[in-house]
Design a protein that fits this description.
The chain is of the alpha+beta class. The protein has a single domain (3-69), classed as Ferrous iron transport protein A (FeoA) (SH3 type barrels, Roll). The chain contains 2 helices and 6 strands. It has a 4-stranded antiparallel sheet. Strands 2-6 form a two-stranded antiparallel ribbon. A hairpin with a 2-residue loop joins strand 3 (38-45) and strand 4 (48-53). The longest helix is centred in the middle third of the chain and has 10 residues, at 22-31. The radius of gyration is 11 Å and the shape is globular.
Length: 70
C-alpha cells in the first residue's frame, strides 16, 4: 500500500521507496524517509499529502506519495 491510501493520523512503517531518481532518493534519505522508519500522514490534500517523519512535517506531491510504500 502506498501513502495515498494511508489513514490520516495513523503511524506506518516505510517498507520501500520506488523511485528511479538517485537525487530524489538522497533527498528523501536526508529527510529521514527510508525503509524501516515510521511515517504518519497528517493530512491528505488535493495536490498530495502532509507527512510527519521524525520531528518534521513535509508536504509531498501525489507522485512521490505513490512511490512510498508502507
Amino acid at each position: 500500500m502506498d501513502l495515498t491510501k494511508a489513514e490520516e493520523g495513523k503511524e506506518y512503517i516505510i517498507r520501500r521507496i520506488d523511485t528511479d531518481d538517485e537525487e530524489l532518493d538522497a533527498f528523501l534519505f536526508s529527510l529521514g524517509c527510508y525503509s524501516g522508519e515510521p511515517i504518519t500522514v497528517v493530512a491528505h490534500r488535493r495536490s498530495g499529502c502532509v507527512v510527519s517523519i521524525k520531528d518534521g512535517r513535509y508536504s509531498i506531491d501525489t507522485q512521490l506519495a505513490k512511490a512510498i510504500h508502507i
